[in-house]
UniProtKB/TrEMBL annotation:
Residues 159-206 are annotated as: Domain III. Belongs to the RuvA family. The gene is ruvA. InterPro entries: DNA_helicase_Holl-junc_RuvA_I, Hlx-hairpin-Hlx_DNA-bd_motif, NA-bd_OB-fold, RuvA, RuvA_2-like, RuvA_C, RuvA_C_sf. Residues 72-91, 107-126 form the Helix-hairpin-helix DNA-binding motif class domain. Has three domains with a flexible linker between the domains II and III and assumes an 'L' shape. Domain III is highly mobile and contacts RuvB. This is Holliday junction branch migration complex subunit RuvA. The keyword Protein transport does not apply. It comes from the Bacteria. It is found in: Cytoplasm. The keyword Nucleotide-binding applies. Its main location: cytoplasm. GO terms for molecular function: DNA helicase activity; hydrolase activity.
Length: 206
């Protein structure tokens, strides 16, 4: 299993990035690939998790060890696979997920695509009290605003909005849900990553 890959970001897509290391291009699925848009051509360390099943070998990657640990906790829950865990992490901060689980906030958890009441309850049953190794300090802290990651804007914002909508569709949001927010999103000029963050906040409130 690969613990991490240190290499150059060569390509950023709606669901994955390609990192070149020693002449080999690794396709790595990430929660929000567009956070890497401003880092193309730069050498980065991506913390990875290799998922293997009979019909698939996939490499998942994260900016931090914290995200990787949260991903592994989420896929240990019955009913949550790698794709569902990635959709949860794409919303933003692991701190929010930890607090929701510890506070038994099913309403918050069911806002994620693919997470119904049954899965939210399972997340709480399986993980409550078992997340101190991830974020012990967050269990006592009050919820705060979502932190936003900024990247350099290299493309026209129309293209960036289109990329953001493609990424959200890949996470499981329907065309109907995305149509509801696309007009409002298009009123502002933002980077792809910022569009995704803003869109997820809007979708979670619906």
């Amino acid at each position: 299993m690969y613990a991490y890959i240190k290499g150059t970001v060569e390509l950023v897509g709606p669901e994955y990035i390609v990192v070149e290391c020693n002449g080999i291009g690794y396709q790595i699925l990430t929660p929000n690939p567009f956070v890497f848009s401003g880092k193309k051509g730069k050498e980065l360390t991506i913390y990875t998790y290799q998922h293997v099943r009979e019909d698939l070998i996939a490499l998942y990657g994260f900016e931090t060890q914290l995200e990787k640990k949260m991903f592994k906790k989420l896929i240990s829950v019955s009913g949550i696979g790698p794709k569902g865990a990635m959709a949860i992490l794409a919303f933003g901060e692991p701190e929010q997920v930890v607090r929701a689980i510890e506070n038994e906030d099913e309403k918050f958890l069911t806002k994620f695509p693919g997470v119904g009441k049954k899965t939210a309850r399972q997340m709480i049953l399986d993980l409550k009290g078992k997340l101190e190794d991830i974020l012990p300090e967050s269990l006592e802290a009050e919820p705060g605003p979502v932190k936003k990651k900024t990247i350099a804007a290299e493309q026209a914002y129309g293209e960036e909005l289109e990329e953001a909508l493609l990424a959200l569709a890949a996470l499981g949001y329907s065309e109907r849900e995305l149509r509801k927010i696309s007009t409002q999103l298009g009123k502002e000029k933002m980077t792809t990553d910022q569009y995704i963050k803003r869109a997820l906040q809007m979708l979670m409130k619906q």
